[in-house]
Hints:
Blueprint: E1 7-16, E2 21-29, E3 43-49, E4 56-62, E5 74-82, E6 88-97, E7 102-111, E8 118-119, E9 143-144, E10 146-153, E11 159-166, E12 176-183, E13 190-192, E14 206-213, E15 216-223, H1 230-233, E16 240-245, E17 258-259, E18 265-272, E19 278-284, E20 300-305, E21 308-311, H2 313-316
Parallel strand pairs: 7-9
Antiparallel strand pairs: 1-2, 2-3, 3-4, 5-6, 6-7, 7-8, 10-11, 11-12, 12-13, 14-15, 15-16, 16-17, 18-19, 19-20, 20-21
Amino acid sequence: MFSLPDSYVWDFWFADDGDRYHLFFLYASKALQDPDARHHRASVGHAVSGDLVGWKRVEDALVRSDAPAFDDLATWTGSVVRDDAGVWHMFYTGATLTAAGNVQSIGVATSEDLLTWRKSPANPILRADARWYETIADGHWHDEAFRDPFVYRQQDGTWRMLVTARAGHGQVDDRGVIATATSPDLVEWTLLPPLSQPGAGFGQLEVLNTATVDGRSVLFFSCLAPELASTRRETGSRGGVWAVVADRDGEWDPRQAHQVTGDDLYVGRVVVDRAGEPAFFAFRNAGPEGGFVGGITDPMPVRVIDGRVVAGERALDAVPVAR
């Protein structure tokens, strides 16, 4: 497990340079005393590992910018990819406080070595567009949710970004959608209408990310119980990590999402280990008595069983699945 004795550690993402795994994580000092205050003090830390178990902390990756800036409150969750020239791109969330509330947008930093990062002067590169997405001006949510960029390469060579956002219409507690943008080169981005519609049962789909598990395309996201729509809360659903296995057309429908963990774990991600096997990670969220814990788990086995994602000890005993 990766943790820091003097800091809260929560959201995280990975990069693999072929030799070492790089863990990027949000952290804030425990001197705050209140774990909920960590979100407005978040910086992006960095650790490296050869086996996904033993981690060595190195210099931080990103900190907030001086005001005024789109990320002058905090730097939040993102993802890292490498372009064809070998340059690494970290897409991340910038948060700023306005008179109306917390506004989030997407920025990018680049690096030659995954250690020294330079923010783009063009930041922010994407903002919520009121044609498709709810903004702070709508006044229906506690912030302008447009964060957690996850970038991956599509089969045709273009790049796609998934973003946590809310639709500008629908039942207020059920507006969570998968925002998306595409790019030919990781530089010029085109924001598009969402890949999903409101009404899936979530106020927001946090930290969207994809992985291939047992030959199936899986979309992971997280949602805490207070952000579940009333329709899901009434069924007894709790907060935690959720997953959707793609249908025959390769599309993910959040209405078909199922829980992978309870609220003890949050932000599920999958990394392929050196043996070629998928490994599931999450951060420790709620303890037995409900308080925040923090720290990132060791790798856990993950499988797709009868169309559902199973992670952790249960996956070890699962019936093998034909690949």
